[in-house]
Amino acid sequence: MIGPFVHLGRLARAAFVLGREGAFDLVDDRELPPGPALLVRALRKLKRGGTAEQGRLAKAFERLGPSWIKLGQFLATRRDVVGDDIARDLSALQDRLPPFPDEVARRQIVDAFDRPVEGLYEWFGPPVAAASIAQVHKARTGGMDVAVKILRPGVEGRFARDLRTFFFAAWMMERLDPMSQRLRPVDVVQTLARSVTIEMDLRMEAAAISEMAENTKNDPDFRVPSVDWSRSGKRIMTIEWIDGAHIGDRATLIAQGHDLKRLGRVVIQSFLRHALHHGFFHADMHPGNLFIDPQGRLVAVDFGITGRLGRRERRILAQILWGFIRRDYYATAKAHFEAGYVPPHHRIEDFAQALRAIGEPLRDKRASEISMARLLQQLMEVTELFDMRTRPELIMLQKSMVIIEGVARDLDPELDMWTTAEPVVGDYIRNELGPRRRIENALEGLQALMELAEQVPDAMKRLESFVESIDDTVNNGMKLHPKSATEFGHEIARYARSGRIALWILVIVAAGIAVGASIF
């Protein structure tokens, strides 16, 4: 029972820090049950004077440390869970931390490759960027400048500890508030844990860069850095150093003679091409991760966060976007039902009506005023009305679209999102839903049917054995060893006690926080 006390202690500390920063001002206690509403009001009393009104939640997460920064960044993409105000506040989070010492970085390299730094690099410089999981050094090898990404020492253990606390909080949320189960808080933390686990294995990031390079090898407007596999491993990654202008530096781009309107189109079309045609996309394409090289190509770096869409999800996404482009709301609604996003007890016509309420207000707006990212967000806002469960792959896509659209509009404020997207979406529709693809799908279905037919004899034998075992159970009853029955009963009792104790602990901690609030 030590675990729950430890987790509750960590959560109580987090609540104190959040209260001191005034973060609970963002929570509408009128929508909460009486107990949590009272707790929120008590925590508001912790707010210290002079606290800034903007970015207060982001500031609190930065004070809580690297794991909370990652959690905050992730929640900023989940407006369906935290709401618009909190998501907007968390979007100000800066994943910038002081670098760890140069000698520690060098020791990490020696431990990873069992070779001195001088034997791997001709020159190894100080850190040029540092975040919660890793930092980057500039170095030189083989006469070429490279970027060396190094994990922070002990980062895996710290994240593992904090993730256990996040899981505990999500589990308690589902236990205490059944209404929260629709938002799947445990699944949300699971998605975060999976993302962070992948991000802390730099071999996975290197593989993502390699896969994107293969997908875009014939793309004249987009590329990624090359990976130096001989100097890359789980905790160290070496890639080509990119010399280019940051995409957010308009003055430099103009001075270098780049066409900003063209670059805006390249950003949107590249992302959509990656998502639709390849089903694999960079999910963190903020300006700091995007460069324009001297040839005018878009270069993406930092592939720690990527997204994937299966073939089925890509087809549905294209149909949804195409339906809105053509204002065919029934087709868009039908695509949602075919994907299983909307439960079958609802009517397609009713859902089409809700989509029309989203799409029709766009008709009187200029193209530059229409946001595709906002459209996807509004689609998610109808989830509760139509009992739609959260789709993690679409959440990642929507978050990425918000970032990409912002980058493109900074380059070209008059960018027509729909005209820009139409060639990519239309090409995908023609290729994937045209006659040729239908024939290929039919052939694939026939092949799957033949493979299934080959498995029928074995399946029949297993079914026969299963029926015989059922007959034996009906005739002779189920036998359970007395020891097994005793252990089963003890296990049930233990879980029942744990559940009651955990609930009482939560009440005690809440009361303690409330008392602390009255003191402040």
TrEMBL record:
State if Cytoplasm is listed as a keyword. Answer: no
| Key words, A-Z | ATP-binding, Cell inner membrane, Cell membrane, Kinase, Membrane, Monooxygenase, Nucleotide-binding, Oxidoreductase, Transferase, Transmembrane, Transmembrane helix, Ubiquinone, Ubiquinone biosynthesis
- List the Pfam families hit by this protein, alphabetically: ABC1
User: What is the superkingdom listed in this entry's lineage?
Assistant: Bacteria
Cross-referenced PROSITE patterns:
PROTEIN_KINASE_DOM
Q: Where does the sequence pass through the membrane? A: 501-519
Q: Decide whether keyword Cell membrane is in the record.
A: yes
Which positions fall inside the Protein kinase domain?
122-450
Under the heading InterPro entries, the entry gives: ABC1_dom (IPR004147), Kinase-like_dom_sf (IPR011009), Prot_kinase_dom (IPR000719), UbiB (IPR010232), UbiB_bact (IPR045308), UbiB_kinase (IPR050154)
Annotated GO MF terms:
ATP binding; monooxygenase activity; protein kinase activity
- GO terms of biological process kind: ubiquinone biosynthetic process
Q: Which SUPFAM superfamilies match?
A: Protein kinase-like (PK-like)
Q: Which residues form the signal peptide?
A: none
Pathway where it operates = Cofactor biosynthesis; ubiquinone biosynthesis [regulation]
Per the similarity annotation, which family is this?
Belongs to the protein kinase superfamily. ADCK protein kinase family.
Kindly provide the name given to this protein in its UniProt entry.
Ubiquinone biosynthesis monooxygenase UbiB
